[in-house]
Amino acid sequence: MKGSTKILVAITAMIAIAVLGVGAYVIGSMVQTQRAEVAKQERAAAEQAAQQEERETCEAALRPYLRALQDIDARLDVGMTQADFGAAVGDASVARNRVDTTALSSWCSGVLADADQALTAYTTTNSEWNDCIWSSYCDTDDLDLQGPWSEASTQLTGAAASLRDGTPGTPG
After folding, report:
1. What is the distance, to the nearest Å, from the Cα of residue 61 to the centroid of all Cα atoms in its chain?
2. N- to C-terminal Cα distance for the chain?
């Protein structure tokens, strides 16, 4: 080989090595990018699974309480006597007292707070209605029970939606 041919072969070899090096670097970068993307997807999947588990745990803890409140809401749509309303509010209160609040996440406590606002509205109107029945100066037709009942229904709908969708309730 002549001198210029040797130089050409050496330059070609260097270029090939450089190209291979750049290629290896590019491939390495692509692999790192893919690994990062896979890790990101795995974290997102794990977070989604944790949120689903949190919703299911919350739903199991609050199910009897929410069902008791939903029963009141449904019965009010068709009419109730004060005695039946009082008994239903009592049942909901018992269901609320059975909720183990120490095991609830902060998100679930927000859902519970929305449900508690509904129970408070029902309890308050039950007391007002009962007091009016026993008072000689009160006419039950003058009571505004529909407003608080409507607010309770809205709170209950919000609690159920939060539970179903995993959206935040009132911070607990």
Report:
1. 13
2. 85
Confidence of residue 151 (pLDDT cuts 50, 70, 90): very high
Query: At a CB cut-off of 8 Å and minimum separation 6, what does 2 contact?
Result: none
Distance separating alpha carbons of residues 42 and 157, to the nearest angstrom:
33
Domains of the chain, by residue range, sit at 3-165
- Helices 82-97 and 3-78 sit at what angle, rounded to 10 degrees? 140
Rounded Cα–Cα distance for residues 100 and 123 (Å): 21
Percent of the chain past pLDDT 90, that is, above it, reads 45
d(C-alpha 63, C-alpha 163), whole Å: 10
143 DSSP assignment: -
CATH number of 3-165: 1.20.120
Q: How far apart are CA 24 and CA 31, in angstroms?
A: 10
pLDDT at 172 over 50: no
Alpha-helical regions (H) of the chain = 3-78, 82-97, 106-134, 146-165
- How many CA atoms lie less than 13 Å away from 60 in the CB half-sphere? 9
